[in-house]
Amino acid sequence: MAIIAKRTLIFFAASLIIAFCYMYFFVIPNTDKQLIKNFNEANIAGRIGSVEIINHGLVTRLKMENNPVVFKFSPYANGYNRFEEFAKKGDSIVKPPLSDLLVLFKNDKAYEYTFDKK
Fold this sequence. Notes:
This protein is of the alpha+beta class. It is built from two helices and six strands. The chain has a domain at about 35-115. Strands 1-2-3-6-5-4 form a six-stranded antiparallel barrel. The radius of gyration is 20 Å and the shape is elongated. It starts with a helix and ends with a strand.
């Protein structure tokens, strides 16, 4: 009886490890890629609801006030202003669909950012 319980425990632990690896290497990256693709294809104009830095600063999560959709993208620094640190709730942005240019409007000034489309 103890051998069956031990084998069951080993099988269960191995199954959890395999499931975790599958999620980590296949499901999560594909979800991020889809969100980045959605951002690239989106026509965005409006005020920022929130800006978060995720994946150790590699990706920015952007939520607009007038749109419940969450966008993920990787902006390049514009001079010394990193988008994810410079953009704040209430600032405005404009990004046409399939454009690699995002314009941030802050205090009546425009700041242009390009971003990674991968």
